[in-house]
Design goal:
The structure holds 2 protein chains of 2 kinds.
Chain A (H helix, E strand, L loop, with lengths): L1 H22 L7 H30 L7 H17 L2 H19 L2
Chain B lengths: L1 H5 L7 H4 L2 H31 L4 H11 L2 H12 L4 H12 L1 H13 L4 H9 L3 H13 L6 H29 L12 H12 L4 H16 L7 H20 L1
Helix pairs in contact in B: 3-4, 3-5, 3-9, 3-10, 4-5, 4-10, 5-6, 6-13, 7-9, 9-10, 12-13
């Protein structure tokens, strides 16, 4: 029930975000301040969720080397993203790195 | 006669707004995005299928919340037992960029009927804004605007249907994918890569570095409030840099 409620409220308010400014076209001066904030909310959120995911994987592993596979996988993905400009290529490079290092370290 | 006098002569009708040829052009323009976002939607679906939330509720994030980052954050938080207010606030923090997209489309959509604007807004997200914005900028005067509207809608609906279908496939496949593949780790990889693909500035770097540090430090906060604190700290750090420069 909690999940349904949260998803429906988040969906309804997201729809309001999508519709209201377009409907209020011409009266959007107040949105300029929000535009400035929105430019940084997305990278902050992506970084927070990614860091939490890496930490979760690192603490789920066993042994002192448990943080190595997830941290190295993200590092490889970042390099791949910079070189190719493709997030899918980054995933394609990062995930096998995670598998290989997890197998090698026994983490 | 009354109907004729109440309709604006400049307002495009359904036949123009749903012009099949223009909508098909939008679908073609969206095609390169459909491959990448189809895979991304599949991964989000797998994450939803593996999380401790009802499968249908997890799938519903795809057509309703309709934003990979917000869905991933919401599913992750629900799985961790976060309070509903934290889930909603985090999803909205990610989705607040949609306000900017909507405001940018407002002038272009002004002459369209309400039903069309309601539908167009429902499917507004990063790629649909990008493809639509390209077409609107190429519009050859007011006469071409209805075709640009149809182009946008065709592109945006194609993405929305693909996204919802991919999420459903991911949820259905989640149980048959071995745990050892650790597909849930695709999400941190994808998000870290997305950060690299955006034009880096001192302020954006400060945003994600601060947010990542606070997310790690705040991992033990109750109700996953550490994530919200990380987003707030990262945003504030970036704004502080911007104000000084």
């Amino acid at each position: 029930m909690t999940a349904w409620l949260a998803i429906l409220v988040a969906g309804g308010l997201s729809y309001a975000f999508r519709l209201a400014p377009a409907a209020l076209s011409g009266r959007v001066q107040a949105l300029r301040r929000l535009e400035r904030v929105a430019a940084y909310v997305v990278p902050a959120t992506f970084a927070a969720v990614a860091a939490a995911g890496v930490l979760g994987r690192a603490t789920a592993g066993t042994g002192a080397l448990a943080p190595v596979p997830p941290v190295a996988a993200v590092a490889v993905a970042v390099v791949a993203a910079r070189r190719t400009g493709s997030s899918l290529a980054a995933v394609a490079a990062g995930l096998p790195t995670l598998w290989a290092l997890t197998a090698a370290t026994g983490a | 006669m009354v109907l004729l006098t109440t309709a604006s002569p400049a307002a495009p009708g359904p036949a123009q707004l749903l012009d099949r040829r223009a909508m098909a052009g939008g679908v073609r323009a969206m095609a390169p995005w459909l491959v990448g976002f189809g895979l991304y939607g599949l991964v989000v679906g797998v994450a939803a299928g593996r999380a401790g939330v009802p499968a249908l509720a997890g799938w519903l994030t795809a057509p309703v919340v309709y934003s990979g980052g917000a869905q991933v954050a919401a599913i992750d938080l629900l799985d961790a037992g976060a309070a509903p207010a934290v889930v909603v606030a985090t999803a909205l923090a990610v989705n607040c960029r949609l306000i900017v997209y909507s405001a940018a489309m407002g002038d272009r959509w002004r002459a369209t009927p309400r039903w069309w604007r309601a539908l167009a807004a429902l499917v507004l997200v990063d790629p649909s804004f990008s493809v639509g914005d390209d077409r609107y900028q190429q519009a050859a005067g007011a006469d071409d605007l209805p075709r640009a509207h149809a182009h946008y809608l065709g592109a945006a609906l194609a993405l929305w249907v693909t996204w919802a279908g991919a999420a459903a496939a991911g949820i259905l496949a989640a149980g048959s994918i071995p745990d050892g593949l650790r597909l849930e780790f695709v999400i941190p990889l994808f998000l870290a890569a997305e950060l690299q693909r955006r034009p880096p500035t001192t302020a954006t770097r400060r945003a994600w570095m601060t947010a990542a540090a606070v997310a790690v430090v705040g991992a033990s906060f109750p109700a996953r409030l550490g994530l919200l604190a990380a987003v707030a700290a990262g945003t504030a750090a970036a704004l502080a840099v911007k104000d000084r420069s």
